[in-house]
Every structure is written in structure tokens, then in C-alpha cells.
């Protein structure tokens, strides 16, 4: 099934470090340039006040709905100021979404600018908007980023993590 290139997904969170303010600002900029924009917003807190009718909020979606959100939209927006790991970026990559995210340490664990994501400076709503618009208008770029993200996220397995941990601790694998 073809993903909707005018649909963006974003996590809603009350913690300032998640950067939702910058994400919302970016989405309003995108809407001015791409009137067809629809946004699926999900999170644990209650819906933010005064959401425009083009933003659809899903509070604590069940697994099926969560998967639907990731699988129908072509783009995932992650505007965090600080991120420890960035689980939602990995989930988006697994579902074949092209990722726009901020250039922070947590996202750098899995995202590489212009390879498997478009990464922009932290707290830069205009740069977030520009990256989203770029993916909306350039089908080849969006599909290349999404395919690369899906391929690269596959390296994060329990077996690979275990092997890396053994390597870090200098433990050789035994064959008993």
C-alpha cells in the first residue's frame, strides 16, 4: 500500500525536551506551503488545546492504531531537543517512513543526515519545515531515505547488541 506523502506523524509529549513546540511551529509552516498536509499526532497526554482540524490526535493508541499511524504516513517528524535513544525514530524507520529529526546525540545513534534521515539543527522550526517540504515534493529522495532507514535499523538486534556488549567488556565467545 502506498504511503500518503502529505501525511506526517509526530509524538506529542509534555516534556519540553521533546521539542513539540518546534514541531508544531514547523507543521504550521508546512501547512502554508502544502495545504493538503494532514498530521497524525499521538501520545499519552490529553490532546493539546486548539488543535487545527488537519491535526488528528490519538491518545495512548492501541498497537493496531499505532501501527496504522506509522504505516499510512510517509514522513515522521522528531523535533526533540535532547534524546536518549529515540525509539519512535526507530519505529518509524521499521515501518518505512522517511524521517525528519533534529541533530541530537540520541537520534545520531540510528540516523545519518542525507543517508537514512534528514537531520536539522535543534530548536529550528524553519529547518524542520524545509526538510518536511523537501520530502513531500521529492518522491525519489523520500523513498530513498525511507528505504535506507528501513535497511539500517535492521542492525539493531538483540544478537548484535549482545555481541557489541561482549566486545566492549573484552569477553571472548566460547563454543561450549
Concise account of the structure shown:
By secondary structure, the chain is α/β, with parallel strands linked by helices. It is built from 7 helices and 6 strands.
Describe it for me?
The protein has helices spanning 20-33, 63-72, 87-94, 105-108, 125-137, 139-153, 158-169; strands spanning 4-11, 38-43, 55-59, 73-78, 98-102, 118-120. It is α/β, with parallel strands linked by helices and 176 residues long. A 6-stranded parallel β-sheet has the order 3-2-1-4-5-6, with helices on both faces. The radius of gyration is 17 Å and the shape is globular. 37% of the residues are buried.
Structural class: alpha/beta
Largest sheet geometry: 6 strands, parallel
* Arithmetic mean pLDDT: 95
| Radius of gyration using CA atoms only | 17 Å
How much of the polypeptide forms β-strand, as a percent range?
Answer: 15-25%
| Main sheet strand line-up | 3-2-1-4-5-6
Helix % is 40-55%
- Terminal CA distance reads 47 Å
The arrangement of helices and strands along the chain is EHEEHEHEHEHHH
**Based on DSSP secondary structure assignment, what is the total number of beta strands?**
6
Please mark out the parts with pLDDT under 50 across 5 or more consecutive residues, or reply none. none
Q: Please state the overall shape, judged from the principal axes of the Cα atoms.
A: globular
Number of helices: 7
Amino acid at each position: 500500500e502506498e504511503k500518503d506523502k502529505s501525511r506526517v506523524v509526530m509524538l506529542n509529549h509534555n516534556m519540553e525536551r521533546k521539542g513539540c513546540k518546534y514541531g508544531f511551529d514547523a507543521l504550521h509552516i508546512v501547512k502554508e506551503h502544502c495545504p493538503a498536509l494532514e498530521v497524525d499526532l499521538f501520545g499519552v497526554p490529553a490532546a493539546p488545546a486548539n488543535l487545527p482540524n488537519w491535526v488528528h490526535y490519538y491518545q495512548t493508541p492501541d498497537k493496531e492504531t499505532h501501527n496504522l499511524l506509522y504505516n499510512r504516513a510517509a514522513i515522521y517528524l522528531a523535533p526533540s531537543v535532547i534524546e536518549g535513544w529515540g525509539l519512535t525514530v526507530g519505529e518509524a524507520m521499521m515501518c518505512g517512513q522517511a524521517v525528519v529529526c533534529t541533530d541530537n546525540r540520541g537520534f545520531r545513534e540510528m540516523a545519518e543526515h542525507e543517508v537514512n534521515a534528514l537531520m536539522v539543527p535543534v530548536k529550528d522550526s524553519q529547518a524542520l519545515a524545509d526538510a518536511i517540504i523537501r520530502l513531500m515534493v521529492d518522491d525519489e529522495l523520500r523513498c530513498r531515505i525511507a528505504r535506507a532507514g528501513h535497511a539500517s535499523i535492521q542492525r539493531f538486534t538483540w544478537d548484535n547488541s549482545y555481541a557489541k556488549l561482549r566486545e566492549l567488556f573484552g569477553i571472548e565467545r566460547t563454543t561450549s
